[in-house]
Write a structure and sequence with these properties.
5-stranded mixed β-sheet, 6% helix
């Protein structure tokens, strides 16, 4: 019985030991609570700059984008020997040159540097460069050139290699003749000039022209004909129509004619959007191949027209139909049209081998002016897009002898079949064609026949349009149709990029703001005249050297207003006022209250206006104590000895410490040992006859009040302690309050496993 009791006591002790090791491990593994003793993040340096390019002297506003746990210490090296320790400094460069800028950022956990080589260009000539798209294509070839020069040129001079040029920054140029072209860009600014030449940069493929050879062109049936394509302009596809219902897509087909006749063979070649056709006649079995011409196709009424037979293979009879109800059987007849009109002429010829007919539609115009008309061809993949090519095809009647095209974009042509026309800009275009013959002219107008998709519609806004000097303005892009690039001109000699930039105006005045937005096809700008008004109106602001204290409480107020105020009006919230810039005021509590809060108001004025700021309950004056404490060290290895020092104001006479590990103290300045690794939040509550006050400190902040803002969470990891407590010397190096999350390095399963192994080992020894 005694042995069983001993065993029960032994195993109970083992269970307690298991809980001692297990619970801290589990807590440490699942808690991410940030504690008063914490680990921070090392910095990563980054920055950019805003400045007016190529001005001397130039003021450059540097913007810090570094990450890392604050507080951060900054060291800027501007490349001209000057430095700064501000977070976002402005620096004036007084000499032209390229400057390398370096930013080094340091905190309690490390240091990081970012160096940008030749980042700032002041007063330097540009370095010319450019690109073009496309660089290879069919004639006519429209090339979009893009200036890629560095150093911020202000003028551009292009030589496209075909005798043409441009002074635009990003021109579009059309090459009308085939060949290889060398392009030169000369860019300049007030500091110099630079050339960039790219030899044989543009390659324009020759115009597409359909041609073929037929061998033989006539003979007995069956007639085997070999067709050979000799088209120019690098055709990509071929469509043959052999005139007997048969076709082919081979470049050089062979075709057999098995019946007599005259066969009109047509070859259409294509290359991209370009195409061209040509025809020849193949005769088999001696059948005639009918053809004819007239000495004039446009005549007055009653004027004779002489028709000449051009038929091959010796026809023996002819049958003419002049289109006005009159016929003839002569080989080369003469006919006069007595009624105004447009007539189709048909000739049928016959010999012993067969017959053939040739019809020429709308061939003769008698006494009437032409009827203008045309059609367009646009590839499906280009419809509604920018950079659109259109083929215009004249379908006018009445044998016009001149053509005048107006494409609606400022361009025109006098050709009957003008070359491909390119629309480079957004919009809907109305096209007109005027045709003339000896009797008069006619015009057809087709409204909005061509539609080219819109580019960006530019608009923007500023969060403030009237500001004080040195006050930030945030600009927001409101453009539609998806621009992909933004360039800003703020009107004060400075420029910016990005969709939604911030800007600071350094001088009073009225400023125009321009936004230039682009997509892959179009660049459009929008300017708002006198959009920003900058004045020296003051912006009220202030701070106090302290905001909570024991009565009587002396506070020094410091004016930090901007805009150069010349007068100040202070209202301290207790009936007292002041007109000083930086006054000092003494606050007291009333007889009936142990604590009073005071709202402070400051109004500042100058010749441009007035501004007021009110800070509600800004000053707290109390007879109760104000809890505060410090420690000799916040970071160390287990076992970690921390000396707590009460620095509360207001003569407290009781102290209640909660160390975050489940223990506490009522001493004024206790010393506490943390035996385990972890993260701990600390609270101190102090009291006197007027009341009490608490302060709660975690890893990122301090919070006052008797109620805990969050439950006190203990995060610790059980470890065996091999070092005697008397041997531990605390590290008194101060560590700043830094936010982080603490997580145990050991899994709870490791802790539990180690505990079980220990228990088993003890049990085995006990049994033995």
């Amino acid at each position: 019985m005694i042995m069983k009791r001993k065993n029960c006591g032994f195993f109970a002790a083992i269970a307690v030991l298991l809980l001692v090791f297990l619970i801290p491990g589990v807590c440490a593994s699942i808690s991410l609570q940030s504690g008063y003793i914490t680990v921070g993040l090392a910095p990563v340096a980054d920055f950019d700059a805003l400045y007016a390019y190529n001005t001397v002297p130039a003021t450059v506003a540097f913007r810090d984008h570094s990450t890392g746990t604050p507080p951060l210490i900054y060291l800027w090296q501007f490349g001209d020997g000057a430095t700064s320790t501000e977070q976002n400094p402005s620096h004036i460069y007084i000499r032209k040159g390229l400057y390398t800028v370096r930013l080094t950022v340091t905190n309690a956990y490390g240091s990081s540097s970012e160096t940008k080589e030749n980042y700032i260009a002041i007063g330097l000539p540009p370095t010319a460069d450019f690109s073009g798209k496309p660089t290879v294509g069919n004639t006519p070839l429209a090339v979009e050139f893009t200036d890629r020069s560095t150093g911020y040129p202000t003028t551009w001079n292009w030589n496209f290699g075909d005798g043409k040029g441009s002074s635009e920054q990003n021109p579009v140029h059309t090459y009308w003749s085939s060949g290889e072209y060398t392009v030169t860009l000369t860019s300049s600014n007030e500091y110099g000039i630079s050339d960039a030449t790219k030899a044989y940069f543009i390659q324009v493929i020759p115009a597409l022209k359909s041609r073929f050879v037929a061998d033989p062109k006539e003979g007995k049936i069956p007639l085997v004909v070999k067709f050979t394509d000799v088209s120019t302009g690098n055709p990509e596809s071929w469509i043959w129509n052999f005139g007997d219902g048969s076709t082919s897509t081979q470049p050089n087909p062979v075709h057999t004619y098995s019946s007599p006749g005259a066969f009109h063979v047509n070859l259409t070649v294509t290359r991209g959007f370009n195409k061209d056709s040509t025809s020849q006649t193949i005769t088999t079995g001696g059948v005639p191949a009918s053809d004819f011409v007239a000495d004039s196709t446009t005549v007055s009424v009653s004027t004779p027209v002489h028709f000449t037979d051009k038929t091959l293979n010796s026809p023996t009879s002819w049958s003419w139909d002049f289109g006005d109800g009159v016929t003839a059987t002569d080989q080369n007849p003469t006919h006069a049209y007595l009624v105004k009109g447009i007539y189709t002429v048909i000739l049928t010829t016959t010999n012993n081998n067969g017959k053939d007919t040739e019809s020429k539609a709308n061939y003769i115009t008698a006494g009437v002016f032409p009827i203008a008309d045309f059609i367009t061809e646009i590839p499906l993949y280009q419809q509604g897009t920018r950079g659109q090519y259109v083929r215009f095809i004249d379908t006018s009647l009445g044998n016009p002898i001149s053509w005048s095209w107006d494409f609606g974009d400022g361009q025109s042509s006098s050709e009957q079949y003008p070359p491909l026309h390119r629309y480079s800009y957004d919009g809907s275009y109305t096209v007109s064609l005027t045709v003339k013959n000896i009797f008069g002219q006619d015009t057809t107008v087709k409204s909005n026949i061509i539609t080219v998709a819109e580019g960006p519609r530019i608009d923007f806004k500023a969060d403030k349009t009237q500001v004080s000097v040195n006050q930030y303005i945030h600009f927001t892009d409101l453009s539609t149709n998806s621009p992909s690039d933004w360039k800003w001109d703020f009107g004060d000699g400075t420029a910016g990029t990005g969709q939604n930039p911030d800007h600071v105006y350094r001088e009073p005045g009225m400023y125009d703001v321009t936004l230039i937005a682009s997509d892959a096809y179009t660049t459009i700008s929008h300017t708002k005249k006198n959009y920003i008004t900058v004045v020296n109106t003051p912006q009220a602001d202030f701070r106090a050297d302290q905001t909570k204290g024991i009565t009587p409480f002396t506070v020094k107020f410091i004016d930090i207003s901007t805009g150069n105020p010349t007068r100040w009006k202070w209202d301290f919230g207790d009936g007292a006022t002041s007109a000083e810039k930086n006054p000092t005021h003494i606050y007291s509590t009333s007889d009936t209250s142990s604590t009073n809060k005071f709202t402070v108001t400051l109004s500042v004025l100058n010749s441009y206006g007035e501004d007021t700021i009110k800070k509600t309950d800004y000053i707290t004056v109390t007879q109760k104590p104000i809890a505060e404490f410090t420690v000799d060290n916040r970071q160390g290895k287990a076992p970690f000895i921390v000396k707590f020092r009460d620095i509360s104001a207001g003569n407290p006479n009781t102290w209640n410490w909660e160390f975050g590990d489940g223990t506490g103290s009522s001493e004024q300045n206790p010393t506490h040992v943390y035996p385990f690794e972890g993260s701990y939040d600390v609270r101190l509550t102090v009291a006197n006859q007027y009341g009490s006050d608490s302060i709660f400190k975690n890893g990122s902040s301090s919070q006052r009040g008797n109620a805990a803002p969050i439950p006190l969470t203990t995060t610790f990891i059980s470890k065996s302690i091999t070092t005697s407590l008397t041997q531990v010397q605390p590290d008194i190096t101060a560590v700043p309050i830094l936010p982080t999350a603490t997580q145990a390095p050991l899994s709870p399963f490791v802790t539990v496993g180690a505990s079980i192994i220990g228990i088993v080992a003890i049990a085995i020894v006990k049994r033995k």
